[in-house]
Amino acid sequence: MFKSGSGLIGINLMEANRFIRRGAASSAVRAHPPSAAAARSWRLFYVLGAFILGFWGGYGGQMLAAPPSDAAENALPIPRFVSLRASEVNLRTGPGVRYPVEWVFVRKNIPVEIIAEFKHWRKIRDWQGTEGWVHRALLSGLRTMVTTGERRALRGDPSLEAKVVVYVEPGVYGQIEKCEGEWCRLEVEGSSGWLRRFEFWGVYPKENID
Asked: Is 159:171 a contact under the CB 8 Å cutoff?
């Protein structure tokens, strides 16, 4: 990320890739059928690997703080916005470690929307429509956002007449501090100011955030 002297917040496209596709480099390679001994070894490796993944970092490669209790989460609505807790998150095709990883998010605090639940797993969608399943331990209640559309003017007060604090390019992430009426106060790359709800993704039209 960078901030130019003109007050424009931009984004390095090479640095900003929100996910990478796993296995794309080797997708054309055909594997040879394994021997019986190799198959048994692989099955043992898979079982042990699944066990380790379930208890240490298997959902994103990191030890994470405990998520909210099941009872607390069951009381929350679906859909709802959350963010990614880890800097690397595996997005799977189904709710469990036995399902293959289709995408890997490579940035922390990306806003996502929970659209379904199954036990400890959550189906999420990002701002560009990518969907998949992640373990709930990899999600945080921190409310974040990403600017959409065209360049946006982050203003000092919730008014179109207010002074522009900084201009923000589309695809820039930030944190939601407060939402009232049409406007939300955000923190973007160290600058705090106001945007209208339709100028970014990460909040519902009539949702209040304190």
From this structure: no
